[in-house]
């Protein structure tokens, strides 16, 4: 990444929190396109509205996003939302919405990008420590986060995908927790974004890291050169 030769970075879920902080860092080196439901109104970012909810609209909505961006060199998947409730508390629509946001949309995006392009230079999947920790009151979130992690690991075996980073953060101070109380000291999303950019600049083909709190620290789980 150099300032002279800007590549296109697409951040799904880049309108707030960690995705937004990543976009603000990357704007120096990339043409950054961010998606979400609310425009973050940042002049250095190109906002593309995208609501991920209903299965029958997803494919055409993602086509619209990809047409706007053109060639995607770096894809960051950061969309996600908190969902509290035991499995029997969740409605059908809750289950479908979570799976669409965390798994159907990134799978379709990778399918569409790789059908169109010969190469994807980088893929960063933001999962969660819930990817590895069973959660009684977040069963579909935990399952879909694990699914996103495995999607990224599997796609990293495709020779057209040059570099894949899976970052699984612990609790962060973002809108994810809006209106809810959370125990302990949460991670600053800006700090997490800086760590992810530093990690991404390293040489590897696949890397999975946990970004932990109390104290804030990085734990590398898997590296493939
Ligand atoms: N915060 C935490 O404690 C924590 C911990 C572990 C992992 N994570 C993961 O980190 C990632 C970033 O989350 P964050 O903490 O930065 O939260 P955030 O500030 O709420 O950001 C979430 C992003 O996802 C987008 N999004 C959510 N639901 C969407 C939907 N149905 N359709 C389209 N876009 C949607 C949001 O867009 P709009 O706001 O514009 O709708 C926003 O851009 C998520 O994948 C989350 O699961 C968060």
UniProtKB/TrEMBL annotation:
Coiled coil: none annotated. It comes from the Bacteria. Belongs to the short-chain dehydrogenases/reductases (SDR) family. This is Oxidoreductase, short chain dehydrogenase/reductase family. The lineage of its organism: Bacteria, Candidatus Azamiibacteriota.
